[in-house]
Amino acid sequence: MHEEYNDRPRYRPVAEIGPGELVDALMTLAGFSENTFLVMQAHQLGMVDNLLNALEDEVMRNRADDDPPRDSMALLGALSHMWIYAAYELQRTWRQRCEEVIKLADSGGLDLKAAHLERDLGYQHYDRELRAEQLRTAQQRPELVAQMRTDLRRTEMGFTMLEFIRVALAKHEVSKKGSKKPPIAFAPGLARQNRYCGSMEYEMSNGGTIIDTITRRDIAETIRFIPEAEIPSDDALAGFRAYMNPPDVDPFARGRP
């Protein structure tokens, strides 16, 4: 019995989660804190995360009542989906910005791109100015570009797991890199409440293969863990990518009639 208990997932009590942990973690990413709009969205994501933590805890404690909080349970499912979309888009945007900077740095195009963004449009365009400033900073600080490479690598696994769930929820497909006809997701949007933390839990499957299960709390904790995340080795990344991209089991995904 004791060993079985130790095998259970461990979730921190909600009271132990600092209200600013998620935002603080995102702010450690290279180039993130310098982008006003990313910072604004991070704070919004953090506020909804705090709300969901409390709601998950409430549902977990009262789900077995004679009159369970059905309205709260329905709200939890709906908000969890929306939070996952927001968490994905925020990280996708940051990753896209980093990849653009790295590509321009490698090709020697930082100055040209910055000059293009700095052109006079006849009105003030805040985001163009911000991006130009970030490119100038990267041009002057090669160590920033190096840190972007590192942070992209450190966060790849967590982001890939998040992307898998987001694609299933939003597109009803399985996230498969390079696939022209992604397999149909199994029961997209279907989730159940995790018994240990109350968070919505999603199955990650590809055809008949169940890859894993993941809760919204897992996704949030992965973000909060970013400052401590280590740089994975080449072998670790290769193994993870293969694990997340099993062979197609749907004959239509291979182009068969």
Give short descriptive properties of this protein.
single chain; 10 helices; 257 residues; 58% helix; mainly alpha; 3 strands
How would you sum up this structure, described in words?
The protein has 257 residues and is mainly α. It has one domain (20-254). The protein has helices at residues 2-6, 21-27, 36-62, 70-107, 110-117, 126-140, 142-154, 156-171, 216-224, 234-244, and strands spanning 191-193, 200-206, 209-215. The chain has a three-stranded antiparallel beta sheet. Helix 2 crosses helix 9 and helix 4 packs across helix 8 (156-171). The longest helix is centred in the middle third of the chain and has 38 residues, at 70-107. It is globular and about 65 Å long. The protein starts with a helix and ends in a 13-residue tail after the last helix. Mean pLDDT is 89; it is low at 1-5.
